[in-house]
Each structure stands twice: as structure tokens, then as C-alpha cells.
């Protein structure tokens, strides 16, 4: 199938686009909780060193590392776990169904980042430039 070969050739770039977009959106949650940007959370900024504050640090810092494609696999593992914990700790107690508890985003982030644990960063990454990208191959910036 010629179209499969053509699509396969672009998969590292599609994966990189997913990684970059997910990271930018994820970082926005961290900036909201830490700096009130673009708008403060409805509950206000979390106190320093609280669980929500630590989560915000992970969202901003982990999101930045994922955006750059630096230490992608271990960072993605940690923040996928953070999103699983966030879902079960904050969303599921409200209601089991994600559409009713607002946990859709947490679930999607969890599985997007979990995918990156196994695939690596795709193209356009520091890991790729260092020879630690997808399939151990070189996917330079």
C-alpha cells in the first residue's frame, strides 16, 4: 500500500505536533494555577507547597520539557501519572462519568502522555537531536 508508506513517513512529525500542542495546553494549566494567567482559577491561586501548587509546578515544568522534547519518556510517565491521580482524586468523586465530572481533559492528557512514554517525542525534539528519539533513531530538530 503506497499510501501507508507515505503516511508512515510523516508519523514522526504528526507525533511531534501532538506532543507540542498537548504540552502548550498543559502548561497553560500550570500558569493559571501559579500566576493567575491567563485568568486565575475560580477557587483562587493554590497556597505554596500545597498539592495543587505541586501539580501546577509539574504542569508547567513537565509541559516545558515535553514541549522541548527533553527527557520526554520519563517526564511523560510522571505527568501521565499526575493526570491519573488528578482524575481519581478530584474528578471521579464528583461523578463517575467524565462528561459529568469535568475530567475529560485529565483522561486525555493521561493517555497522550502515556503514549509518549512508548513512542518517544517524534521529530523536532532535543531527545531526537541527542539520538534518544523515537525507536532510538535520530530525529533531529
Automatic annotation (TrEMBL):
What parts of the sequence cross the membrane? 12-30, 50-68, 75-94, 106-126
Instruction: From the Swiss-Prot or TrEMBL record, state where the protein is found.
Output: Cell membrane
Q: What is its main location?
A: membrane
* Source taxon at top rank: Bacteria
- Keyword check for Iron-sulfur, yes or no: no
Q: Does the keyword Calcium apply?
A: no
Tell me the membrane topology, using the record's own terms. Answer: Multi-pass membrane protein
Keywords attached to this Swiss-Prot or TrEMBL record, sorted alphabetically, are: Cell membrane, Membrane, Transmembrane, Transmembrane helix
Gene Ontology CC: one annotated term: plasma membrane
Q: Which PANTHER family does the UniProt entry name for this protein?
A: BLL4328 PROTEIN (PTHR33452:SF4), OXIDOREDUCTASE CATD-RELATED (PTHR33452)
Q: Which family does it belong to?
A: Belongs to the DoxX family.
- Protein name as catalogued: DoxX family protein
Q: Which organism is it from?
A: Plastoroseomonas arctica
The organism that produces this protein has a lineage beginning with:
Bacteria, Pseudomonadati, Pseudomonadota, Alphaproteobacteria, Acetobacterales
Amino acid at each position: 500500500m503506497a499510501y501507508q508508506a507515505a503516511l508512515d513517513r510523516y508519523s514522526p512529525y504528526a507525533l511531534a505536533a501532538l506532543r507540542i500542542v498537548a504540552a502548550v495546553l498543559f502548561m497553560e494549566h500550570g500558569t493559571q494555577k501559579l500566576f493567575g494567567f491567563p485568568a486565575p482559577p475560580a477557587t483562587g491561586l493554590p497556597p505554596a507547597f500545597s498539592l495543587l501548587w505541586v501539580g501546577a509546578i509539574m504542569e508547567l515544568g513537565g509541559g516545558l520539557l515535553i514541549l522541548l522534547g527533553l527527557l520526554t519518556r520519563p517526564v511523560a510517565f510522571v505527568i501521565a501519572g499526575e493526570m491519573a491521580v488528578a482524575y481519581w482524586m478530584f474528578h471521579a468523586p464528583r461523578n463517575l462519568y467524565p462528561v459529568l465530572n469535568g475530567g475529560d481533559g485529565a483522561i486525555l492528557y493521561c493517555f497522550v502522555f502515556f503514549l509518549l512514554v512508548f513512542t518517544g517525542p517524534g521529530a523536532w525534539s532535543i531527545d531526537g537531536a541527542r539520538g534518544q528519539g523515537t525507536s532510538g533513531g535520530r530525529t533531529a530538530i
